[in-house]
Amino acid sequence: MNQTNIFKLIQAIEQMNNDNIMRFTKAFPYPIGISPILVLYELRTKGPQKQVELAETVGYTKGAMTNIATKLVNLGLAERMYNENDRRTIQLKMTAAGEQALTEAQKIGKDVFTQLFEVLSEEEINQYLKIQEKLVKSIHDRKKSNVK
């Protein structure tokens, strides 16, 4: 494997990711980044959850998850639900405003990527898709082998 080409590929990926994040952030009207959006997505997908569960799912520390949850609550995008029988059990739940923010984030994300990929031909898109699928499979295979 040519190390120079790998280094160039890493640089290109980082440049593309940074540009996409900046374009997304400029278009997204809420003062939050990608991490809180990922949390909102998990809440939409799985419903209310404990912050500890969310931290594990999205790969954040408990402290980072507390900060994300506080930001989402302060913006009205999520709310904390307390268990009547055990006030120590707190779940985070997405609000209607959070649902709207997530829908908008997904639309903006789709627009950003559509603009990015519109320079590629159909054949190039198919090649790129095969490469991405191969990389994703490799990631999943590594996770499986590390679990055993």
UniProtKB/TrEMBL annotation:
It comes from the Bacteria. Coiled coil: none annotated. PROSITE patterns: HTH_MARR_2. The keyword Translocase does not apply. GO terms for molecular function: DNA binding; DNA-binding transcription factor activity. InterPro entries: HTH_MarR-typ, WH-like_DNA-bd_sf, WH_DNA-bd_sf. Residues 3-137 form the HTH marR-type domain. SMART domains: HTH_MARR. Keywords: DNA-binding, Transcription, Transcription regulation. This is MarR family transcriptional regulator. It comes from Cytobacillus solani.
